[in-house]
Amino acid sequence: MDNTHTAKILVCDDSITNTLILKELIENELNAKVIAITDPRKVQSVLEKHTIDLVILDIEMPHINGFEVMSDIRKTYQEDQLPILIITANDAVETRNKALLNGANDFLNKPFDQIEVILRASILLKIRASYYQHENSQVILEQKVAQRTEQLNDAIKSLLNSLAAAGELKDNDTGKHVLRVGQYAKLLAREYGLPYKIVEMIELTSPLHDIGKIGIPDNILLKPARLNDDERQIIKQHADHADTILSNHDSPLLQMAKSIALSHHECWDGSGYPNQLKGESIPIEGRITALADVYDALCSKRPYKEAWPDEKVHAHIKEQSGIAFDPKLVEIFFNNIAEIHTIRKSLAD
């Protein structure tokens, strides 16, 4: 409620005279709009139809009394959110205390003093305004935090993409391999049934699977022929290099990237590296990236090989189900092969 807001006050008293006096008094002195009713059963319908800033309520009324009306109001509105001012002819201390304990913000006795009514009502309207100012400030703060978080996430995503591309450019001059791997991994993770946030994290971090190649000498990485045993051992060290690059970071994204970099060369049957993990002991993000990476590598031309035709790639993946790859993921892969092909074509080198 800002300075330009016209307060709307609900007056409920079974005395028509009292309601008319209060209506004229409040509208003249507070420049507010007053809705006056004599039937307490109509209070809820008024609250549903109008944004009310203050309720002025009698206690002793027919059908339902003021305590019951207050109880209904407080089921929906907090005391600062919708203040209630009780005006009643019952001046017993017990009545006053009961009203205040049951959600009334303030209490006046009849016959009421007009100046006091205006002063008390003004104070309660300020409480209401303060509540909504705080609420609005909180909403604005949350919006700003959300905006800054989104900006930070965008910056992190850009950094991850750039870092992945930098690593891949060592042996692929387009960097689109990592983009394709990210999209294949996203599809596999989604169809595996992982939560949306995890799917998104795998999409963002799977392109970093070979970031450790930055530490591999070019004469080995770019060798246009099969590697010998010593060279293969050096290539395998890229997992250790990734561990060094991505360690000591608390970011969940970087921790996910590290997990993928360390586990995407593990094999379902335990014959992989660097830790010879087997089956379900291989992190799901590593199993997903392994399949995505091998598929794209086989389909792509490299310094040491030509691209394989689809039939040969598909046959190899089927042969490696239960050996290199998680059988469930292989099944998901072929159930979605049309989308896999679409991704490959849309991100072709």
Give a quick summary of the entry.
This protein is α/β, with parallel strands linked by helices. It is 57% helix and 7% strand. It has 2 domains: 8-142, 3-Layer(aba) Sandwich (Rossmann fold); 169-346, Hypothetical protein af1432, CATH 1.10.3210.10.
Give the SSE map.
Layout: E1 8-12, H1 16-30, E2 33-37, H2 43-49, E3 54-57, H3 66-74, E4 84-88, H4 93-101, E5 106-109, H5 114-168, H6 176-192, H7 196-205, H8 218-221, H9 229-236, H10 238-246, H11 252-263, H12 284-299, H13 310-319, H14 327-335, H15 337-346
Parallel strand pairs: 1-2, 1-3, 3-4, 4-5
Helix pairs in contact: 5-6, 6-7, 6-12, 6-15, 7-11, 10-11, 11-12, 12-13
Please explain how this structure is put together:
- The structure is a single chain.
- This protein has a five-stranded parallel beta sheet with strand order 2-1-3-4-5, with helices on both faces.
- The mean pLDDT is 87.
- The chain has two domains: 8-142, Response regulator (Rossmann fold, 3-Layer(aba) Sandwich), CATH 3.40.50; 169-346, Hypothetical protein af1432, CATH 1.10.3210.10.
- The protein has 15 helices and five strands.
- With 349 residues, the protein is of the alpha/beta class.
- The longest helix is centred in the middle third of the chain and has 55 residues, at 114-168.
- The protein has helices at 16-30, 43-49, 66-74, 93-101, 114-168, 176-192, 196-205, 218-221, 229-236, 238-246, 252-263, 284-299, 310-319, 327-335, 337-346, and strands at residues 8-12, 33-37, 54-57, 84-88, 106-109.
- Helix 6 runs antiparallel to helix 7 (196-205), helix 6 packs antiparallel against helix 15 (337-346) and helix 7 packs across helix 11.
